[in-house]
Amino acid sequence: MAVYADDARIPAQAGRIRARWSHLYVGSQDELHAFAQGIGLRRAWFQPATSYGGKPSRLWHYDVTESKRQAAIRAGARPVGPREFRAIIDRRDGMTGR
């Protein structure tokens, strides 16, 4: 499955880093971790997302700064808009109409 890097560019501060953050996601967590490691992301930066109603969240991802987003795209990630996120996640999980 393809790796995706959205262009959400949400302003936030994480530790000492103040930046605009986007999301990196893919079909499986193993694929995501391998790709993320390849562009220099630490496993500790993985965002497992919050569990809703006792079910594991489907919205796991890595948050990435613009420079890491560009590195991901150079490494083969497909750039997408933030509105495409839900449709991609639904397709990844075999769901429709959500």
Describe the structure.
The chain has about 100 residues and is an alpha+beta fold. The protein has one domain. About 30% of the residues lie in helices and about 30% in strands. The chain is built from 3 helices and 6 strands. The chain has helices at about 30-40, 65-75, 85-90, and strands at about 5, 10-15, 15-25, 45, 60-65, 80. Strands 1, 2, 3, 4, 5 and 6 form a 6-stranded mixed sheet that branches. Strand 2 (about 10-15) and strand 3 form a beta hairpin. The chain starts with a strand and ends in a 6-residue tail after the last helix.
Features:
3 helices, 6 strands, alpha+beta, 28% strand, 98 residues, six-stranded mixed sheet
List the helices and strands and how they pair.
Blueprint: E1 4-6, E2 10-14, E3 17-25, H1 29-38, E4 46-47, E5 61-65, H2 66-74, E6 78-80, H3 84-92
Parallel strand pairs: 1-6
Antiparallel strand pairs: 1-3, 2-3, 3-5, 4-5
